[in-house]
Design brief:
Blueprint: H1 9-16, H2 30-33, E1 44-47, H3 54-61, E2 65-70, H4 73-86, E3 91-94, E4 107-113, H5 120-133, E5 134-145, H6 149-152, H7 166-172, E6 176-190, E7 194-207
Parallel strand pairs: 1-2, 1-4, 2-3, 4-5
Antiparallel strand pairs: 5-7, 6-7
Helix pairs in contact: 3-4
Length: 208
């Protein structure tokens, strides 16, 4: 999920998730769905800032052992409902990114999809924690909006400081082996919040 920094982020996201609809839809993010061979069934994967569960539930459906957290209790409640409907198990938690315990060298994979609520300082902490949480050989799959998204206004935060560039990601994840890094445009259809022509960047990287 993505949004500007708020004085009350939990309250803001809880209010956004109050509607019966899943505001980002119930289907997984396309970049994530395109890279399922990154993890084998039985692998342990973390879905960061998982929102209403569309990505974690899909990952669990691929036979993965999935942990997921989000700051919004309402979103996590909807995610649990989605998992129950899909007949899969996900270990959901309510937590913000700084409070999540981030076990070291514990995950075969980390999925970070549109986690662009984070300002640069929070983003640096978040990215460092994601790296630490990966096992050696573990795979990170990440997607976000680029600054060109400000022209489209079809989703994401309005602050350029929250958006990703290839250089930013190369620097932040310099300790990882970057397997794929692609800036492109696509027509997103992820619920009501990510819809229409969009400027995005996707990355797949492996911990050395």
């Amino acid at each position: 999920m993505s949004a500007p920094t708020f004085a009350d982020p939990a309250g803001t996201w809880n209010r956004r998730f109050e509607a019966d609809e899943y505001i980002f839809g119930t289907e997984p993010n396309a970049w994530l769905r395109e890279h399922p061979p990154a993890w084998q069934p039985g692998s342990r994967v973390l879905s960061v800032a998982d929102g209403e569960g569309r990505n974690s539930v899909w990952l669990a459906g691929q036979g993965l052992i999935v942990d997921a957290f989000d700051i919004a209790e309402v979103g996590v409640r909807k995610a649990r409902k989605l998992a129950e409907t899909a007949g899969v198990a996900v270990n959901f938690s309510v937590s913000d990114c700084d409070s999540w315990p981030w076990p070291v060298d514990s995950y075969d994979g980390v999925a970070a999809i549109f986690v662009q609520f984070a300002d640069p300082a929070m983003r640096a902490r978040l990215f460092a924690n994601m790296i630490r949480a990966l096992k050696p050989g573990g795979i990170l799959i990440l997607q976000g909006y680029t600054p060109k998204q400000l022209e489209y206004k079809t989703g994401g935060p309005p602050e350029v400081s929250h958006l990703y560039t290839a250089d930013l990601l190369r620097e932040a994840f310099a300790s990882l082996e970057i397997l794929e890094l692609r800036e492109y445009e696509d027509d997103l259809a992820e619920g009501a919040r990510h819809r229409g022509r969009s400027a995005v960047i996707g990355m797949v990287a492996r911990k050395r």
